């Protein structure tokens, strides 16, 4: 539970500080109290002796202890001892520095042959300071040794708890369909009855203590305060925050995300504060036993969990304000799911309270397993009910002609995950693995809390950044006026901050999923059993641990998800708000993706535990493969990196290579896609774009040139024809005015006069269309003015009889 409270304090910034669990290591001796500065003034030697004794006692208890609860308490005591030793060592450092300064003032002792003599007082003072310095050094080293020993002992305790939990997971306690599972209801062991009776008596004694005449008024006051906060506090606090969101926040999506976060936090805060009031009502007396006090503290911590479940459920469904609902959930589905969040919170609270009661009363394993089974049964049944009832409502809406909400692939995967886990829980209970079913139940609840918190907080971060830098709001206008910057830079800042915020939330969610469990073990260790067959000597030689493989797989999945999300964010949100052209954007996105995938792969291999000095056989195989068949792939990969960095060609350029002319659509790792004029695509290896001559028609904002060459008869008026061609070019809207169109005299031959007219267009892609329009206009104008083009001369030779010579052209030959 300490992991739960620790994550919640960081992740949701709750206002309630949770009291850590304290355990007495010695009978009545509070040796685990924090070491303050006043303790250092007493006697560091005595404190170190006490710490060493406490550490030795913990080691003795750990060596003979197998209870998970006792091991947890000893682990917390060990961590506290490590903190105390570190505090003591840090408190001794200033004294050591002071002694060094005093020794520096006295200086080193004079040499015997130097002829310098010092007084006996100075010599005695130096010896005394030196002795104190050596004593402080020994004490600091002893404190550091105790700290190191406590940390190592804590690691060993954690390993013992994990091994014990894995043993419990593998233990078949009997199916819930058998009589053995339900036996504690009818034939409870005598030991359990006596232990439960003793603990109930302690609870009654606690209630009697707080109801004594001198304490009765305070008890009533605390209980009334808790009831008022639980009943009216949440309602009025939520209404106040809703009023703040409507009247103080700018219009837009920020109001919805703020209200959702406010609903979740108010539900959490009121439940935690109310449970804290009830705890103070019954446990504020010093005479309360430690078992009862620890039980009350566990209930307060449990209220944090239940407050999160109920608050996130109310925030997601938002049945009172459907228009402010964050996820796309239809009203019928939201209404049918409304009872499940408080029901789940109640189930978790009740059965976790029962488990805490069993732990405090130290009941037998059969009673504990029975509580585990009931917990898993009800939570698994609730999970299946959520999935089945939501699907039934959607089917009913379709039958009635209504359109249900459009669900994304991620929502479908989440619902499928809930259904499969619910089935797995019930199946585990049926075959007898009760502890495994309980573990899956609470993991499902924890996953829901993490994903729900991540969704609401990510929406709040994105909407908050957009509202803060939007020029439609007061804050954005003030920032723009203060910095005198363009609006697009504010949009870039909003996108950048929101992207950083979501990245941090993803990292926090991943850490929470890996570390925040109800038990000392994590899901990784559960999956380790499924891949235990990998633990052969081949993997041992590579220092691969199955748990590390699972960690690496999770890292790979999370890394790829982050890279794809970052790529979508750059492509659709951030880069379009910059002044970069589309080719530069695509190049940056592709380069970032390639570097990101390389880093993710390297990080994955590092987490897996691969040591490159033991992968000589892999390197050798790769060398042979590159030498024979992979050299082209490697060459194209390196060429692709060169294209993305030097950018001789980029996405959107019109290029010609080996008789192929088209637009570059994508530069991949191995090849480049070139789209031709007929919309077909040619795949060109990247190495060809580096090694061959490539014509880039659009590089450097190149203009297109529309040139038409015409041949006219010798009897035309060249000046008239020249002006006619210039007029046609000048009137065409695609021809640029600067540089101006020009007509040049190309050639004069017996067949006619050859003139060439040239004009520029804005891009080479417009040359073909411009030439077509110009030719239509030129031919129309020439026909209207009666000017003909020079006809090509042909010569026809007719073969006649042998006795007939070639005739004169006027008689038979035609030219």
TrEMBL record:
A single GO molecular-function term is:
mechanosensitive monoatomic ion channel activity
- Tell me the keywords, alphabetical order: Cell membrane, Membrane, Signal, Transmembrane, Transmembrane helix
The membrane topology noted for this protein in its Swiss-Prot or TrEMBL record is: Multi-pass membrane protein
The record places domain DUF3772 at 140-201
Q: Where is the Mechanosensitive ion channel MscS C-terminal domain?
A: 707-788
Family listed: Belongs to the MscS (TC 1.A.23) family.
Decide whether keyword Membrane is in the record: yes
- Give the stretches traversing the membrane: 215-237, 258-278, 298-317, 329-354, 369-388, 409-433, 445-469, 489-514, 544-566, 586-609
The residue range of the signal peptide is 1-25
- Protein name in UniProt: Small-conductance mechanosensitive channel
Report whether Phosphoprotein shows up as a keyword of the record: no
Superkingdom is: Bacteria
InterPro entries, per database record: DUF3772 (IPR022249), LSM_dom_sf (IPR010920), MS_channel_C (IPR049278), MscS-like_channel (IPR052702), MscS_beta-dom_sf (IPR023408), MscS_channel_2nd (IPR006685), MscS_channel_C_sf (IPR011066), MscS_channel_TM-2 (IPR011014)
CC terms in the record's Gene Ontology section = plasma membrane
* Occurrences of domain Mechanosensitive ion channel MscS (ranges): 633-698
